[in-house]
Amino acid sequence: MPTKQELLKQPIQHIDIKQHNVVALVDAMQHMAFSSRDLHRAASIYERMLLDTDCGVILCLAGSMVSAGLKQIFIDLIRNHMVDAIVSTGANIVDQDFFEALGFKHWIADDLLRQGTEDAMLRENMIDRIYDTLIDEEQLRFCDDTTEKVANSLDPRPYSSREFIRAMGAYLEQEGKVPEKGGVDSIIHAAYQNDVPIFCPAFSDCSAGFGLVAHQHARQDKPKVSIDSAKDFYELTQLKIANPTTGLLMLGGGVPKNFAQDIVVAAEILGNDAPMHKYAIQITVADVRDGALSSSTLKEASSWGKVDTTYEQMVYSEATLAVPLITGYAYHKGAFKARQGKRWSRLLEPVTA
Amino acid sequence: MPTKQELLKQPIQHIDIKQHNVVALVDAMQHMAFSSRDLHRAASIYERMLLDTDCGVILCLAGSMVSAGLKQIFIDLIRNHMVDAIVSTGANIVDQDFFEALGFKHWIADDLLRQGTEDAMLRENMIDRIYDTLIDEEQLRFCDDTTEKVANSLDPRPYSSREFIRAMGAYLEQEGKVPEKGGVDSIIHAAYQNDVPIFCPAFSDCSAGFGLVAHQHARQDKPKVSIDSAKDFYELTQLKIANPTTGLLMLGGGVPKNFAQDIVVAAEILGNDAPMHKYAIQITVADVRDGALSSSTLKEASSWGKVDTTYEQMVYSEATLAVPLITGYAYHKGAFKARQGKRWSRLLEPVTA
Amino acid sequence: MPTKQELLKQPIQHIDIKQHNVVALVDAMQHMAFSSRDLHRAASIYERMLLDTDCGVILCLAGSMVSAGLKQIFIDLIRNHMVDAIVSTGANIVDQDFFEALGFKHWIADDLLRQGTEDAMLRENMIDRIYDTLIDEEQLRFCDDTTEKVANSLDPRPYSSREFIRAMGAYLEQEGKVPEKGGVDSIIHAAYQNDVPIFCPAFSDCSAGFGLVAHQHARQDKPKVSIDSAKDFYELTQLKIANPTTGLLMLGGGVPKNFAQDIVVAAEILGNDAPMHKYAIQITVADVRDGALSSSTLKEASSWGKVDTTYEQMVYSEATLAVPLITGYAYHKGAFKARQGKRWSRLLEPVTA
Amino acid sequence: MPTKQELLKQPIQHIDIKQHNVVALVDAMQHMAFSSRDLHRAASIYERMLLDTDCGVILCLAGSMVSAGLKQIFIDLIRNHMVDAIVSTGANIVDQDFFEALGFKHWIADDLLRQGTEDAMLRENMIDRIYDTLIDEEQLRFCDDTTEKVANSLDPRPYSSREFIRAMGAYLEQEGKVPEKGGVDSIIHAAYQNDVPIFCPAFSDCSAGFGLVAHQHARQDKPKVSIDSAKDFYELTQLKIANPTTGLLMLGGGVPKNFAQDIVVAAEILGNDAPMHKYAIQITVADVRDGALSSSTLKEASSWGKVDTTYEQMVYSEATLAVPLITGYAYHKGAFKARQGKRWSRLLEPVTA
């Protein structure tokens, strides 16, 4: 049996779109067919979204995007005001981004391992697998414990996941887990610095959930920290009301897509005549024929009054191929240059540092 | 433009597996290849799960399963002790099941509509579309309002989604929205009567979210009902600890799959040496190559220590084809007959009615 | 290393739709959503096709349908006049059906094998794998040799694949490889007896190709048997001209789908105003977004003038699940009872046995 | 109703990989996960294939690759000795490449059209649709007629598709449909000039089929041109025997994949101990779970003795995204520079121009 060290040798390295000017390549794709043409249109809509300085850009993340090597892209989007809020699965933000901020890495799995025939061996080595990528489970347990620590440090009351993740950002700052102090950069810390709120509407199905369960278990009948998913929804809706022009950049589907689309309706229920999301892009390989939300077209979302159909585009591609091209295109076209950060966290939490 | 009445003419009718003995058909499939053989094996594992009276069966629902005509199956599973807990997206439970319990229906969309070219017309008619199925949005707003009513009736404190859904079951009982009083049967009410807990770990991304946002908005700074997703996780973990032998019957992936698998690890974190899920079935069309959790194999889950690989089977099929065959097989084999309801809700809430 | 005998223990057994009355089950699916509703509609269109006694039904086969356990269905369709011509990949007809007619079997692969990590071991054992199914390659070589024998027995000239396959049917008859003589039944022989022509427009990419290459190689500069794919096309077009009302029952896509659809245009080119295919069903999991013919919608085919859109239905399902339900429905509804065999082979080859 | 002119306004323009140096971008992908890492490995294997000057590179084309804007890539591969033989569906070579060589174009379809709701309107305008791309059917009929002319010009005997396509190349030359004479460049003509054989093993299911049917119909009982698919197979096998080291670059699956893989076995049957294909790449979105050849893994092909597994890689991507990156990588790395054209056509037809 190979040892853990033998298995965890080649780290995932995050692609840096700043190094690759793909503008001419993506522009050439507009004259082609199928995914290439759609990808160009999506990139153009993202550019347009950014040029519309009124537009608040909401990035939605489902799937294992951070462990797959896209982390630096999301950091660059935050630092260049190309995204104003993030809605994500917990795994991307806690198990993967926070995990790496704590100093850990994701590892490239040998090609054979993805077939699944060696998973018992991985199990014995306390190694977790995400398709073709490996994680040291002992390190992940440390990450769980750290979220418990963060929970223990907070006043016992209901928090939105956004508030909790902001506290995780503060924790990184305070522990020096930031580039300025020799740490690695992270989505959570970049968002903390730039007042970009991050929502994980199903916050408990990730490493944070383990920390929170441990916290609640330890507190027994004493007051405890809880995660109020309704508050998440209320907060994001308030952002929509305060900043009616919005655009969605969605990688994958799932809860983040559903949650972010729904705020249009929620705003209306609160008596505000919020417009539909003006721009919407989704990158997905999900097949529309299973009728699920993840695969449902943005046209279908327009029947629900959630997404306008003038500037919407779905791109049929696994994300690691399409995301560098779409975001790199907008970056190198300089579409972000006139933008100020919207600093939406301040809207929700007036007294920020 | 067609009127709403013209568009909403043919209701979705839920298939009744009790009427269709598929045992011989599914048994014949064991000697074939591809999805048919896998389907037979999944049905056999489900049967085995039920014959193992120690096993607590957790049904996971993602995708639009209730609006697609599978509701009666889930009700029958509950009433025949073929499922002991449900983990679901909010849409299945609130927007679809509770919605129908309130007396509303889902409607068959004309074939043309699924192409998405008529969504603006649907929008004008206040009709929402789920692929090939239609919903009267005005009725859905009534459903939102009803969840607000339920929220308003509760003491202001953090609730697990399970507690809230149980309150929805009590509401249906109290309002007479039950078969005994001429209403239609529902998953929520069958679960209420049979003490089957229902968890929606991302409870706010559905009709319940709208009701809860309205509730929290109206309460302003006063104490309010909140939905604690960590409590959901804690509760389900407690069930795993109390009843170590468990099996998963998963339709689709997403948060329900992730959440239900994770409780093995959570139990361990709480100091309990819980075994992996002993049985696991997933029906999905998601493609493993995007690396997402929804499509990840049950073998991959074993590397995380979540699912044992002796009795696991994925079935590549859209759910409306596979679910009637798999559940119908187990039903007509009589596998449930020796089972008592586990009445897990009582474990979590000792003083039940 | 396991031996060949240990690996080839459980044979594929073909499902017998005559034993499973699925009418009520499929009828219940018409009120549901997604694949189930589409499957019901496809089954109804197939029934309608059969009730229209003018209609010539063309069955198109791509993918490994015979080795997957569907062979008996195709035989039953032929013997009950539910299909009038077959267009197939070579593998289904030669490597799989003729192969079994020669007395060989396909075998169930242990679940592990489909991951591909044991393929080198299979190679050493001279075992070929089709996903979860195994074939003894030595037996397949015998099948190759037999097609060479058939080629050697023919006058050297260009043959349509249909003519060659008819000669294979005659060979089975003459060798006593038929049920009446203790052999197993086959598509080729049932088609031979019922004058159902079988076309394999890419005849050389299968076991027949190996036999024919050996034949041509041995003949060197002497006159030889050749396979004229243009003649295939010409013959099928003549059937369309002689019998203008046609319907397609397509399993998978590929060359068979393209070829069978194209005859409408070919008829027109020959100066005959042939109507589009009046009925069309396709069962496939191919995703429309790659723009390929296999996944292209039947609506798209209507832009080419190939398929009418009044009675067309695609069903999103792996074939082993959908085909028994669709064909079983039509069979048990008795839709074939008023039909006479069209005996199309006689149209092409006036002097048949 | 829009006119044909209004519908056919924006032509497909073919991407030119020579203009886009993607080496750094693709190199960055090797450290990521999922499709990006696989794409890098495929690009590296293609580079390795080219550096191995013994290796004969066989390009396999299925799907609508030429109309999608990839034509110039294939021309560049031929002219830079990056491909030594092509196996394709007929559509790519005849309906799309030859069609454009005759002076026609493919057109970008308005986004709405791909939904299929306007296909009747397209039909009335004699416009054919390939997903999001349009073709003037009247021009396609001219293409059919031209293949008939080519057939009429040949001695009546069986031809391999390769011979026929070579005759099409000669026709273009003779008619001045070449860049040197103001025409547009084409795969067929570049292959003609560079002695790169092109095989379409199912030659009749395309525009050539229409021309050949017309030819055979007009000849009645007189000797006629026929297309011998067995000869195709025999010829390609001879190339494998003459040049044992081979690599496959496969876009899509279908007949081209099957046919090209099979020649290893055919060589063996002819008594030559040909090695498996040493290198193999496939770009596809087909899902392995339907058990079809198109989606079958290259590992599975190794159980058949067709593909070696040391240098094989499948890439999960729609082709228009992956092909420019993979081929552009090998091109800009200069991997082709030490290569001479293998001029395989001369092997098959000793006396070439």
Automatic annotation (TrEMBL), chains A, B, C, D:
One of its GO terms (cellular component) is cytoplasm. The keyword Acyltransferase does not apply. Keywords: Transferase. It holds the Pfam family DS. Its EC number is 2.5.-.-. InterPro entries: Deoxyhypusine_synthase, Deoxyhypusine_synthase-like, Deoxyhypusine_synthase_sf, DHS-like_NAD/FAD-binding_dom. GO terms for molecular function: deoxyhypusine synthase activity. It is an enzyme of class 2 (transferase). Belongs to the deoxyhypusine synthase family. This is Deoxyhypusine synthase-like protein.
